[in-house]
């Protein structure tokens, strides 16, 4: 089982079904979708649980590792970060998105 990574300001933890509402709300912003290759706009209502389940299954297989980005204090959901593994080429790709209300916030400027 993959454990959470905790710093003073941020926590990265495996995605949970309870994140679905926040994912749909934040990823549904056109500006967020425009910064990624894989987030559709409009974000399909009700599709976040299947996204989370797919990410959990990929993590169990070791194909990718997706984490909720949350504030350590209070646990507010901010976005998603993922490491997508390409076993054939022995490489991985890091991708992330952060909800627009949290862009250019001090929390991220200090990382």
TrEMBL record:
<dbReference type="GO" id="GO:0016747">
    <property type="term" value="F:acyltransferase activity, transferring groups other than amino-acyl groups"/>
</dbReference>
<dbReference type="InterPro" id="IPR016181">
    <property type="entry name" value="Acyl_CoA_acyltransferase"/>
</dbReference>
<dbReference type="Pfam" id="PF13302">
    <property type="entry name" value="Acetyltransf_3"/>
</dbReference>
<protein>
    <recommendedName>
        <fullName>N-acetyltransferase domain-containing protein</fullName>
    </recommendedName>
</protein>
<feature type="domain" description="N-acetyltransferase">
    <location>
        <begin position="9"/>
        <end position="105"/>
    </location>
</feature>
<dbReference type="InterPro" id="IPR000182">
    <property type="entry name" value="GNAT_dom"/>
</dbReference>
<dbReference type="InterPro" id="IPR051531">
    <property type="entry name" value="N-acetyltransferase"/>
</dbReference>
